[in-house]
Task: inverse folding
């Protein structure tokens, strides 16, 4: 075989491989373009390049099936990401609502605590006024009466002792 024929065969193989590489490259670009813009159409001049390199249509069909499967997988992944994003947004909104309700509850608790303190003061005033009106003694009154009773008992005992001693002296002398 002459050397020029061998070079032509090698050059032909290299050219075929380059065309297949370009075809795959343009298919990937087309795939990305369709991901970005769904109504993307392949330019006419690229059809010629792809047609020239379509010598092995069986492998091209396999690759197209793989690319379509990859496209479906990407679409599923994008849908799953969108769903996760919407769930995260819903969870975030629920969290914001819960925090707002907690703050409202704390504010209501403070207001109710103030109202309760005011009501306790009013109730104490009403109870003491009621006790005075009907004459019920307070705890201080009860303790004062007990001390007075104890003191008067001690005083009465001393007086009784003095009277007893005086009576004993009076009856012994006579």
Result:
């Amino acid at each position: 075989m002459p050397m020029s024929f061998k070079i032509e065969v090698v050059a032909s193989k290299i050219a075929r491989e380059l065309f297949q590489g370009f075809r795959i490259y343009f298919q990937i670009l087309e795939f990305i373009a369709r991901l970005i813009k769904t109504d993307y159409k392949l330019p006419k001049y690229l059809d010629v390049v792809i047609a020239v390199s379509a010598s092995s249509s069986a492998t091209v069909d396999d690759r197209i099936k793989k690319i379509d499967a990859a496209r479906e997988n990407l679409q599923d992944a994008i849908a799953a990401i969108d769903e996760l994003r919407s769930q995260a947004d819903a969870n975030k909104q629920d969290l914001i609502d819960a925090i707002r309700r907690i703050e409202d509850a704390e504010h209501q608790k403070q207001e109710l605590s103030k109202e309760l303190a005011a009501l306790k003061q009013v109730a104490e005033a009403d109870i003491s006024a009621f006790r005075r009106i009907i004459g019920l003694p307070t705890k201080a009154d009860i303790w004062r009466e007990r001390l007075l009773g104890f003191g008067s008992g001690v005083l009465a005992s001393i007086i009784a002792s003095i009277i007893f001693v005086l009576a004993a002296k009076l009856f012994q002398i006579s």
About this structure: Helices lie at 3-36, 44-52, 57-134, 139-173. The chain has three domains: 1-55, 70-136, 138-174. The chain has a mean pLDDT of 80.
